[in-house]
Amino acid sequence: MSSLRDHLDDLARDPGHDVRIDVEAAWSSGQRRRAGRRMRTAAFGVAAVAIAATSLPLASEVTSMPSSADGDAQVASHYPQRLDYVYRDSSLPADSGPLAGVVQRSHEDFFGSWAVSPGGRMWRIEDVYGESVSISPDGVHLVYLKGKNAADANLAITDQTTGHVTRFDEISLGATDAQHPEPRERYFHSDQMPAFWNAGSSAVFLQLGDYRARRDTVAAGVLGTDGSMTIIRNSRDLPSGSQPVGWFSTTTVGFVKETKSAPRVMEVDVRTGRVTRTFALHDPEPFVSQWYASLSPDGNEIMTRNESEGSQPFRFFSARGSGAGSLRTKMPVPSDLSGPCQPTWTSTDVYLPTDSNTGDNGSVLYRVNGGHPIVADPRLGAGCSVWAARALEGGPERTLGGLLFGTDSTWLSWHWRELSAALAALLAVGLGVGAFRIRRR
Amino acid sequence: MNTGVRQDFESWVHARSQTLARSAYLLTGDVHLAEDLVQETLGRVAQHWDRVLRKGSPNAYAHQVMNNLAIDGWRRRSRRLYEVTAPEAVDGRSVPDSPVERVALRQALLRLTPKQRAVLVLRFYEDYTEVQTAHLLGCSTSTVKSQTRHALQRLRDLAPDVLAEFDDRPEVALP
């Protein structure tokens, strides 16, 4: 033997003849393997797609499926059932599209207002001063004191579909300093006063003050989304201290004034500034909360609450016809009511904001006719929230989290995305190892 | 899968069966294990026959599969284990007139690691180059070199009479 090859050949020659080979069986085995491999690949693909779909919220913060009403892109047509934890905070884009609501978040690490899309995505509203952000019924407009600090904050209306901002330079918080003992702007609006949008979302009605008025003090203003401003002044029929409650019609607004006996309601024509109708609420409670006194969108009902005593129920009075001012019904105050915070009226319901930090059900909204339609991850620290009426009327957006958990507030319902991501990572590792082993064969 | 493709596979198997069987025997040292190894290898080649045929390298792919199966210990999980034994009976009869050198070489081969056996078979029986061997085994050329060196040293230690006159061969190109 002169080489190793000869040795090996000599060793293997005879046994090699004894090795029986079944070609048929090999071919059949190969075909079975081929079919099985295709099945496994398909199963892996389906699993990967499913897990990727469930993990998507980690990247995009929301998983929203196409909804039937998405064609109407200029109106918030749905609301999110679930507000999931925000992993990556981002600023509200000027042209985010219609919004479903605005949520205040309060935590030891953060505080502020976050806009919420119909699919549940949340953006921080960076340049809001104070606490009060009001959203129009169609979800297109926001009105708030826009500015980083009190000195440069002016009232502004944003259009979230076009990105246009209408600033009202004459309306500010009224901040003064040593150089400016008098406010530079003429009108004053507190960041803790509610705002009332008309049904068409084209104008907002809110309380104003006038620094320079000596006799006819200003009661309120009606600001148009086109930049128009109509001032409503106090008069003998509309005394100082009257507070806005909403819109009776497209041209008239309502005020309520506390008196020693019973609150009085005044209907004022915006075009003339004159009181056209007044009536008293048949209410033994003379005090009316500025946050909860509000008119229904059709102007037929007025809701009040005496906030000075926590247990006092909400009261609903008739606001039309000969029965105007008569008590129609009462409603107990939810134990987890978030306040002070405006209610949201739709054409069929009244919704009250609740504090997700207070209750154990994660709710941020309570429907007077029953139910908690929106829940928030406890880590969000969601408190006061305001919502677009059209969004609430449109029903919940079909999101994966909503389909899986509805309005549950269990640990799993708030951490399923993390679990899905972990599973996806494990699957990816498994696929990688599997692919490596297959390549070796 | 049409009949023509299957016929191609069968023709290839008939042409290569003896080579594969011998390599399998060298890798396993056992006729039954070699049968299983060849059958498993052919099944996997059949599974990817389309692709393998397109690439035009069924021989290389078959050796790659066979050696990786042997190295990965595809039989370790099964009922039979490698054993260093005397020449086994084949179909009830003994290996006829086995020279002493043949027995010694077989036993020495079985004492190598699966990877060392695979390197020796590819390099010195199938005549693959170091680069080709590295490619087939999915390792680096330096690994092939070191495995070859260790394997040959161990063979010389275990079967000094058989390999006393053997020297490392120069690099051989694939025929």
Explain the layout of strands and helices:
The complex is a heterodimer of chains A (441) and B (175).
Chain A: H1 4-18, H2 23-60, E1 82-83, E2 101-106, E3 111-116, E4 122-124, E5 134-135, E6 141-146, E7 154-159, E8 165-172, E9 187-188, E10 195-197, E11 203-207, E12 209-210, E13 218-224, E14 229-233, E15 243-247, E16 252-257, E17 264-269, E18 275-280, E19 294-295, E20 301-304, E21 314-318, E22 327-331, E23 344-345, E24 350-353, E25 363-367, E26 374-376, E27 382-387, H3 389-393, H4 400-405, H5 411-440
Parallel strand pairs in A: 1-26, 8-9
Antiparallel strand pairs in A: 2-3, 2-27, 3-4, 5-6, 6-7, 7-8, 9-12, 10-11, 11-13, 13-14, 15-16, 16-17, 17-18, 19-20, 20-21, 21-22, 23-24, 24-25, 25-26
Helix pairs in contact in A: 2-5
Chain B: H1 3-28, H2 31-47, H3 49-55, H4 58-71, H5 100-110, H6 114-125, H7 130-137, H8 141-158, H9 160-163
Which oligomeric state applies? heterodimer
Count of separate DSSP helical elements of chain B? 9
CATH topology of the largest domain in chain A: Neuraminidase
Round the mean pLDDT of chain A to the nearest integer and report it: 84
Computed Rg of chain B: 17 Å
Major beta-sheet overview of chain A: 6 strands, mixed
Q: What does the average pLDDT of chain B come to?
A: 78
Shape of chain B: globular
Shape of chain A: elongated
Keywords (chain A): Membrane, Transmembrane, Transmembrane helix
Transmembrane segments (chain A): 41-59, 419-438
